[in-house]
Design brief:
Shape: flat
Order of helices and strands: HHHHHHH
Distance between the termini: 29 Å
Number of helices: 7
Largest sheet: none
């Protein structure tokens, strides 16, 4: 269960994070005016930070589900203290980009500590081969999105096209099969 949860999370999380990181200024312009394009670097850091927090959340749910919610509460408290400390240190000098860095650093270490605990406690067999295939494919999506800059509605179309390319590449690499394609079909099936 844990291995498949992580695998499915990575299948969704990595390409979305790659696409957002590659198109952050354009994505901000889609929803807000071009005045906010300069916040693209902050969005990139916060997207990566959110990815780390998502993995941390999966690890934390294993711990809570095993009857150890105090451990998760302790981690969350330490995460909050570390984030506050880094914000106090980085915001005065670097502004909002400093806060984004504080979030990224804190969430990365939270993910590492929780992952280490889950691995040791539950002997979770991490899907390393899946991580490698998904990362390579998401990296290709990042490169494609980075070099094919679109704005407005064309950005949404680009996202959809790259989503199809991503799924096709994963199929060709053997990471997804009929089982996963049926899940995707059911999600998008008109009712």
């Amino acid at each position: 269960y844990g291995r498949e949860s992580l695998r499915y999370l990575l299948l969704l999380l990595l390409p979305i994070s790659a696409f957002i990181a590659a198109t952050a200024p354009e994505l901000l312009s889609l929803f807000y005016s071009s005045t906010y394009e300069s916040a693209g670097k902050v969005l990139i850091l916060l997207t990566i930070s959110s990815a780390f927090l998502s993995v941390f959340s999966i690890f934390s749910s294993f711990v809570t589900g095993s009857g150890n919610p105090k451990k998760e509460m302790y981690w969350s408290l330490m995460l909050t203290v570390a984030l506050a400390g880094l914000n106090l240190l980085l915001i005065p000098r670097y502004g909002m980009i400093g806060s984004a860095w504080a979030s990224l650093i804190t969430s990365f270490f939270a993910m590492l500590f929780a992952g280490r605990f889950v691995y040791r406690q539950f002997k979770l067999d991490f899907p390393w081969a899946s991580l490698a295939r998904i990362s390579v494919t998401a990296g290709l999506i990042f490169i494609f999105a980075h070099f094919w800059h679109y704005a407005g509605v064309a950005l949404v179309i680009n996202f959809l096209v790259l989503g199809i390319v991503y799924i096709t590449l994963l199929y060709l690499f053997g990471e997804v099969g009929i089982k996963e394609l049926n899940v995707i079909r059911k999600v998008f099936q008109y009712r």
